[in-house]
Design a protein that fits this description.
six-stranded mixed sheet; DNA-binding; 3 domains; six-stranded parallel sheet; 434 Repressor (Amino-terminal Domain); 339 residues; homodimer; alpha/beta
DNA sequence: TTGAAAGCGGTACCAT
DNA sequence: ATGGTACCGCTTTCAA
């Protein structure tokens, strides 16, 4: 309840001086500064954010647009963002924008227009043209996590093609030739899965091998069902599977076990993510660190807020291979090594 | 950029009238109202939230304090909250308060004091006394999801004892007598797991059976490891397991399968949650609907904001049994039925 | 039914 | 180094 006027009165100075002392801007003698600060803490003074925003034009708040909070990757990125923002004293406003929901429409039509934030972070948004227009129209800096580079926005993303390429190469190096790619290709065709599929295709083509793509929902049960289907036919079975993400890959591992196919001796499976369950399933995978991506995105945004002129930054991260025990040379192959 | 003054000018009225027309409060003739509204939409007018907040004292914003966003239950509750708030035009500010982190301290010391919200929702917070003080000191309505009832705050929670009781009873009714409880009891001793353990204990005691509690981290890998331990000893093995939550229960199912113990014929497993993976593992479970809990919490809070005098509400939800295929009578038992 | 003007709680410019 | 004061953009009495 105590306002800055009260603080000023108690400290025996003017509002102006009190403001300077508290915000730390402008000249204030050491003596008065401490006097003001003491008065403030004695009164339990906390500046009204709306008054500050109104006067300064800054909200000390960052908006985060996210399609799902209940998926591993998104939740991890969000944690990373939150962590960085908290450290810098920024609030975080969450906008849930699940594709195809009325809520998403409202976010773009109503909520963003309020501009209750100094900048935005969009996680795996994949906006359509109209949504993109709205986003740009806001006139606030935007950082994307996952996706394509725009000319005006910064970006933090995994190099998805590269990750899929490395996963595929890993199986090739072990001597596999019958390698299937599990995931994506659905109607919602996420950009991520598209890129990973591309990386797989290119790598297979370069190795002179036939690509073998099985669409699957990008979830653990989805991977399980798709893999169960795939592995059901005893004779036409791959010896290696690249999962578009760890959840799909783990689904495949579980399906294989249920069918009595032992991993890795009869079937190799590699994923992308390093999901929290990966270790438990001894899953070989290409690690990406979503929390770090989130932190990085927040830092890029805050930097942008500090120096508005600065050019946008595009960060392409490379996944690193973590070898566990879900991949091995195919049965009956001398252990091969391709440079 | 366009302010209400601009809108008023274009519509040929005063700021006051424009404000009335836009907010829908006070008398405005139908003719002028439409004129103002047209001017507003023509100019793409959006009211400045900081100005509105400063003038009205309301922020149209709800703060959500959450210890983890990357756990299923919490993420689901958050989705539910977001959904309800969005519908009512409220923003949602997220405060991450992972136990034992410096961030949590900052949330309680600095961020909450800013009062950038009209009310708070705390999900599974389990605040210590000091934190509770701070929470109350804010002077804004609070709704808790999960946990204990305070005299001043509303609450939405599952009846955890009851859920565990029902899970245990289910196994008893099938004829099991050697029933272990998996989960909780760790150092972080969450209230939830404590209550569920209590419900299990009481039910076993009433049935004249020896309780058998195995501590375990409340995660899928945690349940897996604990169950692997438990089931390793062939002779002293339970015929039924109650998991403190589905992730733990699913971990147990996976561990059993790996050990060649077939579920449900040699081992019954029941969980609590109805987690998104439950169906894939045919897990019998006691369903709670976290999204609905979140929506409900948001509605309670908004109701409280509308009528500040109203008494707090305590909602205790009952989980309902979903029978799948992870539970069956124990080997060699005539199918029993207890009324 | 409408308009004028006084705040809401700060910040920042301009003097002193 | 400090104080006076005009805003920031909107809501809300009070008078007309």
């Amino acid at each position: 309840m105590a306002g800055i006027a009260e603080v000023a009165r108690v400290a025996g100075v003017s509002k102006a001086t009190a403001s300077r002392a508290i915000t730390g801007s402008g000249y204030v003698s050491h003596a008065t500064r401490t006097r003001v600060l003491e008065a403030a803490s004695a009164l339990g003074y906390a500046p009204s954010t709306s008054a500050v925003s109104l006067a300064t034009g800054r909200t000390q708040n960052v908006g985060v647009i996210i399609p799902y909070v209940d998926r591993w990757f998104f939740a991890e990125v969000l944690e990373g963002i939150q962590d960085s923002l908290l450290r810098e004293g920024y609030d975080l406003t969450l906008y849930d924008a699940r594709p195809g929901t009325p809520g998403r429409k409202r976010v773009f039509e109503d909520f963003l227009a309020r501009k209750t934030f100094d900048g935005l972070i969009a996680i795996g948004l994949e906006p359509d043209d109209h949504e993109l227009d709205r986003l740009v129209a806001i006139g606030r800096p935007v950082v994307s996590v996952v996706g394509e580079a725009g000319p005006t926005t910064s970006l933090v993303t995994l190099d998805d093609q590269h990750a899929a390429r490395r996963a595929t190469e890993h199986l090739l190096e072990l001597g596999h030739t019958r390698i299937a790619f599990l995931g994506g290709g659905g109607a919602d065709g996420a950009h991520v899965d598209h890129d990973r599929l591309l990386g797989y295709h290119a790598t297979m083509r370069e190795a002179g091998l036939a690509p073998w793509h099985l669409p699957s929902p990008v979830t653990l049960p989805g991977g399980y069902a798709a893999a169960a289907d795939l592995l059901g036919d005893v004779r036409a079975r791959p010896t290696g599977i690249v999962g578009t993400c760890d959840e799909v890959a783990i689904g495949a591992v579980i399906a294989a076990r249920r069918l009595g196919i032992s991993v890795p001796s009869s079937l190799s499976v590699v994923g992308i993510d390093n999901h929290e369950y990966a270790e438990m399933f001894s899953l070989t995978t290409l690690e990406q660190r979503p929390q770090e991506q989130g932190s990085k995105a927040a830092e890029l945004l805050l930097a942008q807020l500090r120096s508005p002129g600065a050019a946008p930054v595009q960060l392409h991260l490379q996944a690193t291979l973590i070898m566990r025990n879900s991949t091995a040379p195919p049965l009956g192959a001398a252990s091969a090594s391709v440079s």
